[in-house]
Structures are given as C-alpha cells and as structure tokens.
Amino acid sequence: MMQEVVNLLSGVISLACVALAFLAVTSAMNKSTHILTACIIALILLGVLFKLFRLIFAPLLAVGSISIVSGINKLLGAVMGAAEACLLAYFFYKVLAHFGIYVL
To answer: Stretch 43-58: mean pLDDT, rounded?
Structure first.
C-alpha cells in the first residue's frame, strides 16, 4: 500500500511539472516574464517537495519489507484495490446515467 501512495504522489508531482512546463513555454512565447518566473519558482519548489517525499517514504518502504508488515501491506493493498474498483464502477455508472445510456 505504501508503494501505491509513493506512485500516486510521483504521478501527481510529474503531472504538475508537465503543466508548469507547458505554462512556462507559453508564457515565454507571450513574453510574460512574471508568469515565467512564477512557473520556474514553482518547478523548483516541486523538485524540493519531491526530494522531501523521497526522504520521508524511503524508511517507510524499508519497514514495509519486513515479512509481517509486508503481509499486512498486501492485505491492505487488496482492500484499497477493491475499494478503488467499486469507486470507479460507481463513477462510470453515474456518467452513463447522466448521458442516459444506461439506467437501472
């Protein structure tokens, strides 16, 4: 379960970096230096935040390799996977019901 949290945080930070990079390129093309400066500062802060998360989660992942903790981690990962599948199915049903494609 801890690895899923790390992967989720990495994905969110990566997505934010890509969005900021596109915004920085667009603002550079429009010659808007204050937005470009804000994007560069935000990218630097996201890099620092990512390093901080790595420092926090590295020991937690090492503890997760202990056999008892690993078993609990696998069980909780299965529970979270089932909850995620139920949540996605519910949202999918709501989208289909909104468009009138499928209604029970």
So the answer is: 89
